[in-house]
């Protein structure tokens, strides 16, 4: 079994993979192309499966301490009528935890702080891998070459590594939706812990944070590439007349704080997540739409499963085969479900279809929302359990 790895990409999935590998005693180098780690991002909700993966990786308690549980909220119409309620307490009774909300920057920092600083190489992009040597992978980095037993490709939806490994794959597809998001400059009374509001071809949602601030996001049906000179002003126009606290959230936002990204996904599923001694992870393997809030959670699952497979198998090859077998069917199923959720939620524009959907949600039994979340969130990390600390393996 090997003992050294290069992780390409220093986002949530890459950092989580590095934590998992270190906990089984591997030496890890994370290579991130960004020259400055500014921890850009808005907010994120973590379901029980993501939190359980973080527990396995050793940072679950720290993340929970920095997060706000989501007990109240649900889905509304633009005028504020309730379509479905979220019962965080019921989820906690079943899963042992509610969903939690946390700034992405905080999550990034907690993951990064759990790694030794010398393991992170920033401002460097991996443009090639050499898989010609038996049992080794070489990663050129300028004048140096990293020689490793394993490379983890966690370089995002536009993964260069995926293109290198699957040159005939069509790559990510535009979903038809674009998202604007930001964190308010100061605390705002958001009313609930988490909320989604669905209008024709549009969604507005918020996540309340522990410090009183809130993240908001607006998802719109839109051609790719459309941008606005004053995003909050455009959002005030687009969501004029929508219920509180939407106006207050937008008024508490600086224009320069708004992030705007078109949503891309991997519609053409990969035939495998491993090629030789290279494993794809997170968005590089299964980029999905955000409609189920499962993108980051699936990446965290990937990291936990990869580490467990490497700890439990005699060879890297056997471990990667196990990783692919366990992760590809589940993550691709979640990606398909997220795509369908978007089509039946935010992307709907036909008034009749919207009316039928809203009626179905209002008439659904109270436990239906909990069961829908459980379908993807009730995941148990694989055995064997990882060591409690890297030191237990001499890392």
Secondary-structure map with pairings?
Elements lengths: L3 E5 L3 H12 L3 E6 L10 E4 L1 H10 L2 H7 L1 E3 L2 E4 L5 E4 L2 H8 L3 E5 H10 L6 E3 L14 E5 L2 E5 L1 E4 L6 H6 L7 E11 L10 E6 L2 E7 L5 E8 L9 H8 L7 H6 L7 E7 L8 E2 L2 E3 L2 H4 L8 H18 L3 H29 L6 H13 L4 H10 L18
Parallel strand pairs: 1-2, 1-11, 2-8, 5-13, 11-18
Antiparallel strand pairs: 3-7, 4-7, 5-6, 9-10, 12-15, 12-16, 13-14, 14-15, 17-18
Helix pairs in contact: 1-5, 1-10, 2-3, 2-10, 4-13, 10-11
Task: Please explain how this structure is put together.
This protein is 36% helix and 23% strand. The chain has 395 residues and is of the alpha/beta class. It has a domain of 229 residues: FAD/NAD(P)-binding domain, CATH 3.50.50. A hairpin with a 2-residue loop joins β17 and β18. It is globular and about 65 Å long.
What low-confidence regions span 5 or more consecutive residues with pLDDT below 50?
390-395
Rg, nearest Å: 21 Å
**What shape does the CA trace take?**
globular
Q: Give the C-level CATH assignment of the domain at 4-69 and 101-173 and 266-344 and 383-393.
A: Alpha Beta
Beta-strand portion reads 15-25%
> Helical stretch count?
13
- The helix content, as a percent range, equals 25-40%
Global structural class:
alpha/beta
| DSSP E strands, number | 18
Entry summary:
The protein contains 13 helices and 18 strands.
Key descriptive features of the protein:
395 residues; alpha/beta; FAD/NAD(P)-binding domain; 13 helices; 36% helix; disordered C terminus
């Amino acid at each position: 079994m090997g003992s050294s790895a290069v992780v390409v990409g220093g986002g949530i999935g890459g950092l989580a993979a590095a934590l998992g590998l270190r906990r089984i005693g591997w030496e890890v180098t994370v290579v991130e192309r960004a020259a400055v780690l500014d921890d850009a991002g808005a907010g994120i909700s973590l379901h029980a499966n993501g939190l359980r993966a973080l527990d396995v990786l050793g940072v679950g308690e720290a993340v929970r301490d920095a997060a706000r549980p989501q007990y109240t909220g649900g889905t509304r119409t633009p005028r504020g009528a309730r379509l479905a309620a979220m019962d965080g307490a019921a989820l906690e009774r079943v899963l042992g935890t509610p969903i939690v909300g946390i700034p992405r920057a905080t999550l990034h920092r907690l993951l990064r702080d759990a790694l030794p600083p010398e393991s992170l190489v920033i401002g460097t992009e991996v443009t090639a891998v050499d898989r010609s040597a038996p049992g080794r992978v070489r990663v050129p980095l300028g004048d140096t070459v990293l020689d490793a037993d394993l490379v983890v490709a966690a370089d995002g939806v536009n993964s260069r590594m995926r293109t290198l490994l699957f040159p005939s794959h069509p790559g990510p597809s535009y979903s038809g939706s674009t998202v604007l998001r930001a964190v308010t400059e100061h605390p705002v009374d958001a009313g609930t812990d988490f909320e989604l509001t669905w209008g024709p071809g549009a969604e507005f949602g918020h996540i309340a944070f522990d410090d009183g601030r809130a993240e908001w996001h607006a998802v719109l049906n839109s051609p790719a590439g459309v941008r606005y000179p004053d995003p909050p002003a455009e959002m005030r126009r687009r969501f004029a007349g929508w219920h509180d606290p939407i106006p207050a959230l937008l008024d508490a936002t600086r224009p320069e704080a708004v992030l705007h990204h078109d949503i891309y996904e991997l519609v053409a599923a990969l035939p495998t997540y491993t090629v030789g001694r290279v494993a794809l992870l997170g968005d590089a393997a299964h980029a999905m739409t955000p409609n189920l809030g499962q993108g980051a959670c699936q990446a965290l699952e990937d990291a936990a499963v990869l580490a467990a497979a490497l700890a439990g198998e005699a060879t890297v090859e056997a471990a990667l085969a196990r990783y692919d077998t366990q992760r590809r069917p589940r993550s691709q199923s979640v990606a398909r479900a997220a795509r369908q959720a978007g089509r039946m939620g935010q992307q709907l524009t036909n008034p009749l279809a919207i009316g039928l959907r809203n009626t179905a949600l209002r008439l659904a039994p109270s436990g239906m929302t909990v069961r829908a979340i459980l379908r993807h969130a009730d995941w148990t990390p694989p055995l064997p359990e990882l060591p409690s600390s890297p030191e237990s393996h001499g890392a």
